[in-house]
Amino acid sequence: MALQNTKGRLLGISRELLRNWQDTQEVWRDQKGREFDQTYMQPLFDAADNAVAAMENLDKILAKLRNDCEIEE
After folding, report:
1. For the range 62-71, what are the long-range contacts, defined as Cβ-Cβ under 8 Å and sequence gap of 24 or more?
2. 53 with 11: CB under 8 angstroms?
3. Residues 23-41, buried b or exposed e (16+ Cβ, 10 A)?
4. Is the pTM of this model over 0.90?
5. What DSSP state is assigned to residue 28?
6. Which of 15, 22, 64, 66 has its CA 20 to 30 A from that of 30?
7. What is the pLDDT of residues 23-66, one digit of tens each?
8. How far, in Å, CA of 1 to CA of 8, rounded?
9. Which of the four pLDDT bands, split at 50, 70 and 90, describes residue 71?
10. Which of 39, 54, 46 is nearest to 18 (CA)?
11. Cα–Cα distances in angstroms (integers) from residue 36 to residues 10, 42, 71, in the given order
12. Contact call for residues 3 and 23 (beta carbons, < 8 A)
């Protein structure tokens, strides 16, 4: 259950950050803003997406392990 909570929290935080970043981009429209987005923000959002995907895979593996252990008891 803790993994689901962590995944949910990461999703919520990254969505909030994305909304805030989109608001910032409305006023920061120069080359430096685009460079900041490409250098820092997009890799951060990609890393968050990858972490969520990894958590989902890990959750599936853990569920299978739990199921396998229950069958053998």
Report:
1. 62/3
2. no
3. eeeeeeeeeeeeebbeeeb
4. no
5. -
6. 15
7. 999 999 999 999 999 999 999 999 999 999 999 999 999 999 98
8. 11
9. low
10. 46
11. 22, 9, 52
12. no
Residue whose entry in the numeric block shows the structure tokens 């969520």: 52
- Are the C-beta atoms of 11 and 59 separated by less than 8 Å? no
* pLDDT of amino acid 51: 96
Joined together, the tokens standing for residue 47 give: 């890393």
- Residue 49 is part of which domain span? 2-72
Query: Per-residue pLDDT for 73 more than 90?
Result: no
In this prediction, residue 2 carries a pLDDT of 83
Angle at 18 between CA 24 and CA 12, to 5 degrees: 140
Residue type, 24: T
Tokens at residue 42, please?
């997009």
In one letter, which amino acid is 30? D
19 phi and psi, to 5 degrees? Answer: -60, -45
Instruction: Tokens 């803003």: give the residue.
Output: 33
